[in-house]
Amino acid sequence: MSNIKYILGSFGDPDEMMHGIEKLQENNITIHDVYTPMPIHGIEAKLGVKRSRIDIAAFCFGITGTCAAFALIYFCAVIDWKVNIGGKPSFALPDFIPIMFELTVLFCAFGMVLTYYASTHLFPGRSPRVMDLRATDDRFVIAVDAQENVSHTVIDGLLKDAGALEVKYNERKYISYE
Amino acid sequence: MGTHNINFSEQFEFTGKVKTLSIVGIALGIAAIAYGFIAGDKVMHERTFANLLLMGYYFACVCMSGMFFLAVQFVAQAGWSASILRVPQAMAKTLPIAAVILVVIISAGLYTHNLYHHWNADGLTDPNSPNYDALIAGKSVFLNVPFFLGRQVLFLGVYSFFAIMFVKLSYNEDLAGGLNSYRKSFKNACIFLVIYGFTTPIFAFDTIMSLEAHWFSTMFGWYNFAAMWVSSLATIAIIIILLRRAGYMQWVNNSHLHNLGQFIFGFSIFWTYVWFAQFLLIYYANMPEETVYFYRRFEYYKFWFFLNLAMNFLAPVLLLMDRDNKRTDVRLLFVSIVVLLGHWVDYYQMIMPGAVEDGHNGFGIIEIGTALGFVGLFTFTVLTSLSKKPLIAKNHPLLQESLHHQL
C-alpha cells in the first residue's frame, strides 16, 4: 500500500471538471470532494451532496433566543422588579415582543456564524486547511480518496481524458496544514 | 425540462368551466349587492357600500401591485421572473377597469353619504351648525370632496397609464425584439416606483383611513401597502399554479414557485412588522385619540382581530418556513389562498368599524356575495386579457435565465 492519500485532478475549466465528475462516476469511483474558486450551478445535485441542515440549526438558535429574551424580561419586569408604566399590567406581552424579536435575530445570526465556523474548521487565527492552494484561485479540483480507490492509473487516465491540466498525488490530506 | 420543446406562442384559452364559474360569480355578486340595496335599511345600505368599497379597493390594489411587481422586476433587472411576467401584465392591464369601478363606488358612496360620513356630512365644517366638528373642519383643506376625488382619479389614472405602457412595451418587444422595449421599461419602472412609493400611502390614507377621519396613523400607508403587495403576490402564485395544473406554462419549475413562496413568506412578515409597529406604538403611548381605533376593533371585532393575525402571520410563517413547502405547488397554493382570504379579513376589520357604525360584525350574504362577485370579475377580466397574447414574452432579453432558473 502506498502512502498516497488523495489524488487531485486540477482543471482549468468548470465544464471540463463537470465532465470529469461524470467520467469518474461512470466508473464507480467515489469522489471525496470538489473544490472550486466559485459556486457552480447544479454541482450539488451531481455530487449528491446532502441538503445543508443549517436552516434547522438556525431555527433552534432562534427559538433559544426567543425563550431567553422572554425569560429575561419576565424575570426582570414581572418577578423581580415591577415598574408601573402608564398603569399597564407588569406582564404586558406586546412590550416584550420587540426584545424577543431582537434576541431571536441575534442568537440566530451568532449561532449560524459559529455553526459555519465549526463545520468548516475555520476559526480566527487558524490557517485554513486546503488540499490544493490553486483551488482558491483559478483551478477546479476533484479530490479522490486514494485509499478507497486502488486503481490509481485508471483514475489518472480518466482525469487526464476529461481535460485535467495536472494530476497530483498527495501524501498528506491538507498541504497547508499550518 | 429542456428549453427546446417550449412552445413560444402558447396561448391561454379562456373557455369552459372557468368562464362559466366566473360569470356565475359576477351574477351572484350583483344579486347580493341588489339584495343589500333593496331589502335593507340604512345599516344594510352602509354595509353594502362598505363591502363594495372593500372589494373595489382589494381589486384595484391587487392589480396595482401586479403593476408594482412588473416595475420591481425591471428595476432589479431580475431574470428569474422573465417567463412569468405575462401574469402580472394581465393584472396590470385590468387596472384601468378596476380603477373605474373603485372611483364609481367611492363617488356613489360620497354623494349618498353612505361612505366617508365622518368627514363628508352636512354642517361638519360650518361653525354655526350644531354638527360642527373642529377636528374635521381643520382637516377640510385636505379632506374635501373635489380634492379627494381629484386625488383618487389622479393616482389611479397615473398608475393605469404606466400599467398600459408597460404592457404595450412588452407586446412591442414580442414583435420587434431587441433591447429598446426593455430599456424603456427599465427607465419608466424607475420613474413609476418613485411615484408609487410616495402616492400609495396617500391613496390608503384617503380611501381607507379617512373612513374614521378623527383617527390617524402614519404607519397606515405602509401597512396597507404591505397588505396589497402580499395579496397580489399570492394572487400571482395562485394563477400560475392553476395555469400549470391546467397544462399551460410548463416551463415554470419549482424554483419559480420557491421564489414566489419566499416573496409571500417575507412580505407576510413585513406586513406583521408594520401591523405590529402601528399597534405597539398606540398600545404603549395609550393616547385616547389613537387607542379609539383598536378599542373599536377589540370591543366589537375581537374574533376578526385575532383571525387576521392567525391567517396573515401564523399561517404563512409556519407553513412556508420549510423549503419543501415553498416548492410544492399544492402547499403553496393552499397558503396563497389562506393569505388572500386573510387580507380580506384584514381589509374587513379596517373598513367595517368606521363605515358601518350601528351594526357590528355584519357577516352574511352581502359579504360573501360581494366577495364572490369581485372574484368572478377579477377572474373574468384578468383571464380575458391573459388569453389575448402568448403566455411567454418570447423576446425578453433575460428569458433564457428564467427558463433555466434553478435555486
From TrEMBL, chain A:
Query: Which spans are transmembrane here?
Result: 56-79, 99-119
Q: Which domain of life is it from?
A: Bacteria
Q: Which UniProt keywords apply?
A: Membrane, Transmembrane, Transmembrane helix
> Which InterPro entries does this one have?
ActD
Q: Which PANTHER family match?
A: LIPOPROTEIN-RELATED, QUINOL:CYTOCHROME C OXIDOREDUCTASE MEMBRANE PROTEIN
Q: What is this protein called?
A: DUF3341 domain-containing protein
Organism equals: Pedobacter jejuensis
TrEMBL record, chain B:
- Domain of life according to the entry: Bacteria
- What's in the keyword line of the UniProt record? Membrane, Transmembrane, Transmembrane helix
Q: Which residues cross the membrane?
A: 21-40, 52-76, 97-116, 148-167, 188-209, 221-243, 263-283, 303-320, 332-351, 363-386
The record ties this protein, via PANTHER family, to:
PTHR43044, QUINOL:CYTOCHROME C OXIDOREDUCTASE QUINONE-BINDING SUBUNIT 2
Q: What is this protein called?
A: Quinol:cytochrome C oxidoreductase
Q: Which organism is it from?
A: Pedobacter jejuensis
